[in-house]
Batch of 2 targets.
Target 1
Amino acid sequence: MKQILKSVLVLLLIPVAIFAQDLKGTDAIPFDANVKKGTLKNGLTYYIRRNTKPENKVDLRLVINAGSILETDDQQGLAHFMEHMCFNGTKRFPKNQLVDYLQSIGVKFGQHLNAYTSFDETVYFLPIPSDNPEKLEKGFQILEDWAFNANLTPEEIDKERGVVLEEYRLGLGADKRMEDKYIPKMMYNSQYANRLPIGKKEILENFKYDKLISFYKDWYRPNLMSVIVVGDIDVAAMEKKIKDHFESYQNPKNEKPRKTFDVPNHKETFVAIESDKEAAQTQIQLLYKDYGLPKKVKTINDLKENLTEGLFSTMLNNRLNELTNSPTPPFTYGFTYHGGTFARNKEAFQSFAMIDESKQIEALKVLVTENERVKKFGFTTGEFERAKSEILARSESSYKDRDKKESEDYVWRYQSNFLEQSPSPDAEWSFNATKNLLPTITLNDVNVLIKDYLKDDNKVVVITSPEKEGLKKVTEQEVLAALKVNANDLKPYEDRAVASSLLRNPVKAGSVVKKETNDKIGSTTLTLSNGAKVTYKKTDFKNDEILLEALSFGGSNLYTNDEMKKVQFANGGLTEAGFSGLDQNDIDKFMAGKIASVSPYISNTTEGFRGSTTPKDLEYAFQMVHAYFTDLNLNAAAFEGYKQKQSNFFENMMSQPSFYFQQEFYTYLNKENPRWNGIVPTKEKWAEVDYQLAYNKYKERFANAGDFEFFFVGNVDDATMEEFSKKYIASLPSNNVKESAKDLGYRLLKGDIKKVVKKGKDPKSNVTIMYYGDATYSPKEAIAMTALGEVLTIKLIEELRENESGVYGVSARGSMNKMPYGSYNFNIGFPCGPENAEKLIASALTELDKIIKNGPEEKDVNKYKEAEAMEYKKKMKENRYWMTNFTKSFMNGSSPEDILVASENVKAVTAKEIQDVAVKYLSKDKTIGILMPE
C-alpha cells in the first residue's frame, strides 16, 4: 500500500519536472546546473547544492544502492539489521556515542536522524547545523563511518537483535498474514516475493555474525554509494570534504555483481482472495503488469510520454472520484495509475479501491468497467482540458516557489537520480517545458494508452477482507468472471456542464471600520462592519502559498447530551452535500486548474474553517467561506453516501487489536461521561444519527460571523485582503452575541488505575501510562511540562531500547491546556512483547522517578534546548508555525507576540523547573492501559 501511494505521489510530481521549449524529442533532458554532480575514482557519486531554506542547516544523506533483494537465503533481514547497526556504534563514535553526540547538537533520534531499508536500497538521513565547522566535520565523519566503519562486534549485534525483533513484532497482524499469502502471486516467480526487508524471525534470532559482516563488506562499497549534500553551505568546501572522507576507500577485490531482478511474465491471471479475523478493511488491487522493463526517462520524448500518462491518470481518477461522491458510492475511495510495483524493474497499470465488504465483486466490476469504458470511448474534450489545467496549475505553483524549496525536497530528487536515473532539470526549464509541451499532446495520444495497459495475461487480482460469520467469501471463478465486460453494454461517459460560479446568491459588501497594525510581528487586523475580524500576516516564506483559518468559541459543548449523540458522527458529512446548489462533483470540476480548498469544522469548544490557496486563487477561498456560511446544501442522498463510505471504513475497525484497545480503554475512562459515544460509529450509532438536526445545528453555529476571527498567513496583498474581506466576510450575517468556550465538567476517571484489554492472536502488547487532571494554566509550567516529555524520551530510549533491547520505539509527551479549562496531560507509550510489558512499565516509571527525585541531567536538558533552537529557526520561516501561533493565541487569550520570545523561554527553562512539574503533577495517581493478546 505504501509503495502504491508513493508511486501515485511520484506520478503527480512528474509534470513539475518536464520538457523544454525549442528542444527536439530526441534531445536529452538537461541536468540542473545548480547542482554539483561528480564521481570519485572509486565510483562513489556525489551531489552538492547550496540552498538556504532552512538557513544554517544542511541535509546529508548516504544512499546505498543495495537492499534486501541482494541477501542470500541465510541473510534474510540482515540488510535492515545492518541499518540498525550503523546507529549502534562506529569507529569514531563507539556504542551509544553517535546518538548522544547528535542529540547534543539538536538532532533528534527517529525524528531527524533516521534511515530506511527497502528491497533495492538503504538510505541514511542526517540533518545537522551548518553554521559550525566542527559540527559539519563530525557530520561527514558519521557518514564515512556508516559507509565503512560500523562496529560489528558480537556483543553489539546480539544486543540489537531484541530491538530488530521488536520492529519485526510491530509488523505482525492481519495485513502481514494476508500479504505473505498474496505476495507470491503478485510478484510471481520473483526474488522480490522472498526478500521482504524485515526478514525472517528465525534468521534474526540465530544468524551467525559473519553473515552480517559479509553483507556489509559485499554491498557497502563506493561504487554502490551516493553522498548527497544540500543546504546552507559552500559547494567547493563540501566537495573537498567528500573527497577527504571517501576518496581513499576501495571497492572489494572480486566484488559481487550488483544483480537486478525481474518479475517474470505469466500467461495466467493470478487471483489471491485472502481474509483474516483481524482485518480492518476490504481492499481490491488489480494489476496489469507490463511485459518489459520500465523505460528510463532520458529524452524529451520520454518525458512527453510521462506527461501523457499523467493526463490519463488525472482524467480516470477524476471519474472514479465522481463515483465516490455519488449517493451510492461503489467504494470508499479508488484510484488508478500506471507506475511502479514493489519491484524496481516492474511497472503495471494498477487499480486500487477500499470497498464495502459485501460488494467485493461489484466494486471490482466498476474498476474494470471504467477501464473498458475508456478503452471503447476514450475521454472527452472537457475532461482533457480540465486535466491539462490541473497539471499546469501544479507545475506553475512549483515554479513560483522554486526559490523557496526545502533542502529535503532536493535531496529526494537527487536520490532518485542516483538510484533510478530519474531526470532532474531545473525548475524554470521544467515549467517552461510543461507549458509548451502540454498543447502538443492530443486527446488521441492519451486515449490510445489504455490499449497497451489492458492485457489478457500478466494480470493479478488481490482481494483482502475480514473473515467473519455471515460474510460469504468470493470465489476465484467470480473474480475471473468480473474481469470480463461486454463492451456492447457500455455507454460513453457523460460530461456535465461546468458551473459558472461558486456563489449563486448576490453578495452585498460590507466595510472596514477599523484597521490596526502590529509592527512587532508584521500583522494587520481589520475589524469589519458586521463585527468579524480579519488578521493577516504577509510573509515571503513561500511565493505561492496562503493559509487560512477562522475561529469562534462555542462548538458542540453547547449542544445537549441527547443532541450530541445524534450529531457527533454526522458533522463530518455535512459538506458532502456541497454548497450553492452545487454538488461535490460540480465544485471539483469548477475548481479544475485552481488551487484552493476550505473545510468547515465543529469541535467541542469552537467552530471554524481551515484551508489553503495561492495568491492567484485567493478569491475562490473567500467565496468558499462565504458559501459554507450562507448556502450549505441540504441533501439527504449525499449524506447517505457519506454514511456508506464511513461504514465501509469503520465497520471492522474493532477487529484490529490496537483500535479495539483504544475503544475499550477510553470507554472505561469515560464511564462517568454521559456524552461519551465511542471512537467510531457502529451500525447502532448510525441508526441514531439525525442528519437534519446536524444540519440545523451547523446553521446555528455559523449564523453569527461577528463572533469569528479570520487569520491569513502567506503571500497576501494588503489591498486584495481589504477588498475580499469587505466583499465576502463583512457581508456575512451577524448579531451581537459573543459566545465563550464552555466547560461541561466531565473528566476522565481518576485514581490509580490499571486497565488490561485482551485482543489479538499475535504476541503483541501496547502500553500507555497517563497522568492527567485539572491545573491552573501557567505558560512557564507548560514549557517545563513539554521539556519533561522530551527529556524523559531521551532516557527511555537509552534504557528501554538501548540497554534492555525491549522496545523499537518509545516516547513521552507532556502538555498543559487552558481551554476549556486548565489541565495537564502526560503520556508514556510503547509497544512491546507481552512477556516484557510489566518489566518495561517498571523501567519506564523508574526513569521518571529518577527525574522526580533528582531532577533531569543537565546534558539532557541541553539536548532538548538544542533541538528546540534548531526547530525554532526553521519554523519561524514557515507559514504553518505562524498560523498555529495566531490560533493558539486566540484560544488562550494570549498575545501573538509571544512567538518572538518562544525560543528565549525555552532557553530559560531549568532542570529545577522540569523537576518541579514532575513532582507536582506526576507523583500522584497514574493510569496504565495495557493491550495483551487473547
Target 2
Amino acid sequence: MKRLFLALFVLLCLLASAPLPRAAADEPAVPTYRVGYISVPGFLTKDADGHYRGSGYEYLEQLAIYAGCRFEYIDLSHTNTSMELLAGNVDLLIGSTIQPGDPRFLFSEHSIGRTPLQISLASGVNPETQSSLRIGYISDVYSRDAIDHQLARFLPPGRYALLPYADYQALDQDIENGTLQGIANDSLHPQTGTQPYGNLYLFSHYILYRPDETALKDHLDDVTNDMLTVTPFLPYLLAKRQEQKGAPLILTPDERAWLAAHSHIRAFASPNQPPYAYFENGEHKGVTQDILSRIEHDLGITFDITETSTNEELFRRLDDGEADVMCDFFFDYNWAHEHHMMLTNPYLTVTYVLVHRRNEDIPSSPVIAAPRSRNFTRQYVERYYPEKDIRYCDTDEDCLRAVSEGQADIAAVKSIIAQALIYRNGFFRLEADNTVVYTQGTSIAVSERIDPIFVRILNKEIAHLDPTAIQSAINEETRATTEQTSLVSYLYRHPIESLGILVLIFLALLVGVLLVLRIRRNHLAEISRIAYTEPVTGLHNERWLESQLPDAIDRAQSARVDGRLYLVAICVRQMAYYRSTYSRSVLAESFVHEIQRAQTAFPWFRLVALSGDRTRLYTLWELPAGLAPEQAAQQVTEGASVIPFGDVMTRIRYHVSAVQVPNGRPDIAKLVSAASTTLDLARTENQPFLLFNQQMEEEFAWASHLETLAPKALARQEFSVWYQPKYDLATHTLVGAEALVRWQSPELGLLPPSRFIEVFERNGFAVRLDYYMLGHVARFLEDRLRRGLPVVPISVNQSALHIGEGGYLRKMKETAEAYGLPAGLIDLEVTETAFVDFKTKEARESSRHIIDSLKSYGYATSMDDFCTGYSSIAMLQNLPMDSMKIDRSILLAAEHDDRALRILRSVIQLGASLDMKILCEGIETEAQEKLLKDLGCTYGQGYLYAKPMKQEEFEEFMEKHLA
C-alpha cells in the first residue's frame, strides 16, 4: 500500500512540473492597415455613435473581406493629408484629389469612385451681370487646359481669368477676402461660402500608397480584381446608396436659351391607368403628371398634353407627328426607334403583377388578356405565352373585365393600378398577386424632329428629382384614387340569368345588403382595432386597458380582497438612447417577443397594454400568495435583462411601479394615472421599483391642485419674470440674461420653479407658460428700446413639448412680427433632450426646419443643458445653433475628475470650432471661473456674478453695468 501511495505521489509531481499542452495553435495575426481619410459626407464620415458611413468606407470594408485584413480609419481633415502618408503616419490615403501621374505616390489600379470637377461661385456673384470673374484652381491637381475647354460652355471667353494656386490655404483665403469670385473644386470637397455653378468633367478617386509600398499595392490590386469580377459596378452601386436627394440642376447658357425659346411642348400621355396616368375632364392626372409638374416648375416650361382614349390611338397620332413628346414611354430604345423617338433616362420604375379570379386555381396553360399597342405586351406577354392563349383588349379595364367574365384566366397590369382597377370597376371576383412578373422603366420620349439638347436637359432634371418626392407622389395618388371609389362599386354583382326580374331585384338587394353589412362589420372591426391597439407593435393600448380593467378586477375579487391585485407600469431605462440607436421595427419586434415570453412565463399576468408613445407597459398582476410585488418585478426584469436587438444582445434595465387595487369600485382613470405618475417618479429618482404609497398620493394631489390653479394664475398674471445676468468671464461685462419664472400664488405663496415646472411639463401647461414668459420678455425689451434705454439679449426657455406642438412655428412668427425686435435680442434656450432622434432622415429634416425657421424669424437659438442627453453631437451636426450652454453638472465633475475635465475642455473647443458662443452655468466660486477661463470658455452665469432678480432690480443692474 505504501508503494502505491509513493507511486501516485511521484506521478502527481511529474504532472505538475510538466508544461501544459496548448489548446490550439496560435491563430495567425490579421494585418491591420491605417487608412487616412478626409471626412466627406456620403464618402467617408464618422457619425455621433462612432460608426463610419459612406461609399468609400463600404468599398474598403468589402475590400478588407477579400484581402483578409482590417482597416483602421484616421481622420486627416485638419492636416496636410499627403504629408501624413509620405511620413508613414498612415498606410493608405483616400478622398484625395491627387491624380495618377504624381511621382510622389503609387495609385491603385482601379478607382474607388468618380467625382465631377465643378465650378463654384462665391455667394452673391452673378455671372450674367459681372464682366470679369477671377477663378482659382490647384495647379498640381487639375489641368488648366481641361478646365478652360469645359468652362467655355458656361462663360464666354474673356469673361473669366483662371488663376493657379499651389495650395488650398491660399485659395481659401482669397475666396474669403473676395479676391476670387470662384474656384474649380470637386463636389466631394465643397468650399464654404460658394455655390455650384456648373459641372466640368469627371475625374476618378484612387487609393494612394507610398512609393515603397509596392507589395501592399499589388496585393490589394489583385484582391480588388477578384472583388470587381464578382461585382463590376460596386463603386457605382455604393455611391448610389448614399444619395439622399437628387443632383443639383445646373444648366448651360445654351440649354437655358433653348428652354426660353420653347416654353410650350406638345405632348401625349397614357390614358385610362389611374393612379399611374389618366385624364379627368380633359385634364391629365396621376403619378406621371405629379412628376411632370415638378419638371415643368424646375425648367420653366409647360407640357400641353392632349387626351387620347386608347394606346392604339395614342401611338397612331404620335407617329403622325401630332406631338413632340410622349410623357410616359416604355424604356426601350428599339421601341423608341420604331416610333422615331429619342429616350431620356427613366424617371420611374413600375412593376407588373398578375390579376386572376379569387379562389380559383390558374390553369397550367392560362389564357391571358393583354392590351394592344403596348410594348409590355410585346416584351412580356407575346414572348412567354403562345399566340392562341392571348386575348387582346383595348384597355387594362377591358383586360380585367375579360378575366372577371371568364373570357380569360389572367391579366398582367401595373401593380400601382391593380387595386384601383378592381375597386373602381367593381371587379370583386378578382384579386392581384403580390408576385412581380415584369419590371419596366418609364421615361420621356422626345421626337427625333426636336433638338437633342432637350433630351440632355431632361436627363439633368431627372437626375435632379428627389426620389422621396416621387415616392410621395405615388403614395398620394394611390390614396386619392382609393378614396374616389364609389359606393356603387362596393354593391357590384354579376347578373343572375336563370331567375326572373323580381328574383333578380330581390337577390340583388339581398346581396347588396349583405355586402354592405359585411363591409361595415369589417370596417367596425378595423376601427376597433385602430382604437384599441398600438399600430407599431400591435399590442393593446391604454384605451383598451381602461375598458377591460373593471371586468378584470371583478374577476379577481379574491386576490383584491387579499391585497394581491396590482396595476403595474414598466418602462425601459434610457429608452431615448435605444430609439436613436436602433430602428423602430427592430425595437418593436424585440420587445413584443419579450412581452409574449413574460405572459407565458408568469401566469399572474392578466392584462397587457402599451402607452400611445410606446414608452411604458401596463399590466394587471394577480400575484400568488407569498409573492410580494417587488419580488415579482425583480423576476420579470431579470428574465428580460438581456434582449437581442437584431443580432446584438443588449443588457436592459427597467423602472417598475405598482399600485395596489383597492377594495370597492376603483376609479379606473385615477388608478392608471397613479401607476403612470409613480413610474415617472421612479424614473426621476432612478429607482428600479416603486410602490405607490400615501406620500405619493399627497404629491399627486399637489400636482392636481397645481393643475387646477394654474390657468387662473396665468389669467391673473401671478407668474412673474426674474432675470439672472450672463457675463463675459474675462471682463466681467454684462452680456445678457436668462428669464426665469416665479409663481406668487395667493393660495400657495411664493413658489420657485422646482415646485411646479415638472408638473407643468407632465400636464402640458408648460407650453402656455412659455408663451406667457416670451410675451413678457418681448414687451420688456420693446419698452426699453422705445424709451431709448440700453438692452441686452434675453434668453427664454422653450419646453420640449413645443417640438411636437401643432402651429408652434406660426405662433412664434406672429410673436416676432408683433414686437419687431432686432434679430438675436431674444434667445430661445432648447434642451438637447427635446431632439432625441437623429437616426432618420425625416427627424433630421424636421428638427433642422424648426431651428432654421426660428432663426429666420429673428430669434437666436441656444443648446441648453449640453452634455446631459444622448444626442449632443448629433444636434451639433444637424442643427445650426448659435450658442452652447454647458450644464453645471459637468463643471462640478471637472473640478475633481481629470476625465471630466478633459471632456469639458473638448466640449469648449468643439463649440468654439463651430463658431458657437460658449456659456457655462452655475458658476459659484472664483476657482470655477478661473478653470473655465483657462479652458477657453467665454461666457458664464451663476451666483458668483449675480443671482436671479426681479425686473426692476435687473433694470438698476443694467444701468450700473452698461453705463
